[in-house]
Write a structure and sequence with these properties.
Layout: E1 2-6, H1 18-25, H2 28-37, H3 39-46, H4 52-64, H5 69-82, H6 90-101, E2 105-113, H7 114-124, E3 127-131, E4 133-136, E5 139-144, H8 152-161, E6 169-174, H9 180-184, E7 188-191, E8 194-195
Parallel strand pairs: 1-2, 1-6, 2-3, 6-7
Antiparallel strand pairs: 4-5, 7-8
Helix pairs in contact: 5-7
């Protein structure tokens, strides 16, 4: 089996969409209150002292704790229909279709969150491994099931889902340092459209 691993934000899309979804899906009053609640973390993030993989779970917890699964899913459907198509890279869509036509197993591996990414990947007919928001009794807890799906967690997510002994070749696509671990595990890595030179690990 040939396996294709593709990051979403900035690789399939022209820009990061996580923040856009949070802003679109969260009530303005809650945005203000959440912003106040995690303001110390925001300051640290803006100053470069708190990495994105630590910031995103805090944002998700503040924005989505207690939110109805039905309500957020409906917003995610509108987001996928109205916004996501405006930021998709045509060349990457062609790349995905090419791999599908070749019979490759295509998996999006992303720090983006499950409500909208599950929908988009289902529409594309591809698998997804992402920051999976936990649901209990019909409401989101705001927590991630396996943590933020970035850096080495991308590799762990792939190993958890896929039996790599069945894989003969891996191609991976990414665009930031959060993808390096995933790119390092691939036979062929593509970083921002160019051949990737493997690192010593992240």
């Amino acid at each position: 089996m040939k396996l294709v691993l593709i990051d979403f934000d900035g690789t399939i899309t022209t820009k990061e969409v996580y923040t856009k979804f949070v802003l679109m899906a969260t009530h303005p009053i809650r945005l203000v209150l959440a912003g106040l609640l995690i303001s110390p973390a925001i300051v640290l993030y803006k100053s470069g002292m708190l990495p994105a993989n630590k910031m995103r779970p805090l944002v998700a917890r503040a924005a989505f704790f207690g939110v109805s699964e039905k309500s957020l899913t409906e917003k995610a459907e509108r987001f996928v229909e109205d916004y996501v198509p405006t930021v998709l890279r045509a060349d990457m869509l062609d790349t995905i279709r090419g791999h599908q036509e070749n019979g490759d197993r295509v998996v999006v591996v992303s720090a983006s969150i499950s409500p909208y990414l599950n929908i988009w990947c289902s529409q594309m007919g591809i698998e997804v491994l992402c920051s999976d928001l936990v649901v209990r009794r019909g409401r989101f807890t705001g927590r991630y099931r396996y943590g933020d799906c970035s850096l080495h967690n991308k590799v762990e997510a792939v190993k958890r889902q896929i039996n790599l002994s069945d894989v003969s070749h891996i191609t991976a696509y990414g665009d930031t340092h959060e993808d390096f671990a995933m790119l390092d595990m691939a036979n062929i890595g593509v970083y921002r459209g160019k051949a990737y030179v493997k690192t010593t690990g992240v």
